[in-house]
Amino acid sequence: MTTPPHPAGLLAAASGGEPLSSGGLTAVIVTVVVLVVLAGFFAMAETALTRMSRVKAVALAEEGRRGSKALLKVVNAPERYINPILLLVLVCHTLMATLVGTVVGPYGLIGFVASYLVELVAIFVLAESGPKTFAVQRTERAALLAAPAIVAIAGFPPIRLLTRGLIGLANLVFPGSGSPIGPSTSEQELLALASEAESEDVIETEERVLIHSIIEFGDTITREVMVARPDMASVEARSSVDDALEILLLAGYSRMPVHNRSIDDIRGLVYLKDLVRASRDGKGAEPVEDIVRDAHIVPETKRVAVLMREMQVGKFHMAVVVDEYGGVAGVVTLEDLIEELVGDIVDEYDDEEPLIKDLGDGAWSVAGTIPVDEINEKLRLDVPEDDDWDTLGGYLFHRLGHVPDIGERVESDGHVFTVEKMGANRIDRIRVEPVADEPADA
User: Fold this and answer.
1) Contacts of 143 (CB under 8 A, 6+ apart)
2) pLDDT digits (tens, 9 = 90+) for 119-161
3) Residue 57 · residue 68 · CB < 8 Å
4) Which CATH superfamily hosts domain 222-342?
5) Which of 49, 105, 154, 311 could bridge across to 12 with cysteines, CB 3.0–4.6 Å?
6) Would you say 129 and 45 are in contact if contact means Cβ atoms under 8 Å apart?
7) For the whole model, what pTM was predicted?
8) How far apart are CA 123 and CA 100, in angstroms?
């Protein structure tokens, strides 16, 4: 911002006076040049340091870049260093204006107008526009260059005390202005930053997807990643070892819950290796409850990031998920949590239909169990997200208000969602396609 000449300079210009000697004029010119340079430096520092993010400063410090330690101090407590910069910029501008006023005072109004125009151009070009443009275009370089000097200047006792005194005065005039709010970065800003880095070829697409998954991982709850109750394999405690072994082999799992008469009454977990060992030892006809291990029970609202850490520390790979009423909602495995980060993990024994299948001509076949946020991201849709449903099938249930028949349709966001396949009382597959254009009237 350009600062007009100081009132003292105006007074000198209006009142006239003796011109300065050649030595005095030289001293004033040199001082003004120094002030312009300093003002430009402080303007560059202000722009660069306010544009520098803490994440970038930490990365520069880890690289061992010169000036990065001082830069970290600034970004960690910006209010301590930015205010002295603003004060010094103002000091340079006002002092410059005052000195110029003493030079042009004897020349009256003409001298004042000429000096004002020269000073305006000099301040704007050399002390404002130029340095700030450099800081915008080369933020990293400018911040590393300016940070050490700014830390030293802000720590100089007279500057520090003067700044604090003026801030205290500002707090008296404007109550509440002394409660600085530190810079923060929201998740959406981090997601946008990753997308921008991908567009500029700084990171690969796979890295951007992983960054998005990691950020969203902290907000995901167990209910969104678990194997739902209708899909989970389980066995009654009174069943024989051989029967339980057959169920596990057909399901392709390495462990499953064991329950009493009701699936909501979980006794524990049974492991494939324990069943194989018992069957080999001639205990195939004995009840499976004899080899049951303890089960970990978790609420369906538990954050998956916390659950993953508990699994790592507790060294268990499966947990039984219960709802708020204590009923079994499903099971969750360590693999389910890892897939939330890195995507689906399919081995040679998996024979599952893909969640999303391209049918061509803009049509897709989608699993009813796919989370709404995932289908929105992958197909660029805008299906409403709500606490009443987590999956696309749940959304269709909500819209239809009954158990649908195959072929029933719902229109939303310019797309048609058609029930393709039902399983018992749930939607297994959904066809998604754009709304067909209405034929023009002849």
Assistant:
1) 45, 48, 49, 51, 52, 57, 67, 71, 74, 135
2) 777 777 777 888 888 888 888 888 888 888 888 888 788 877 7
3) yes
4) CBS-domain (3.10.580.10)
5) 105
6) no
7) 0.54
8) 12
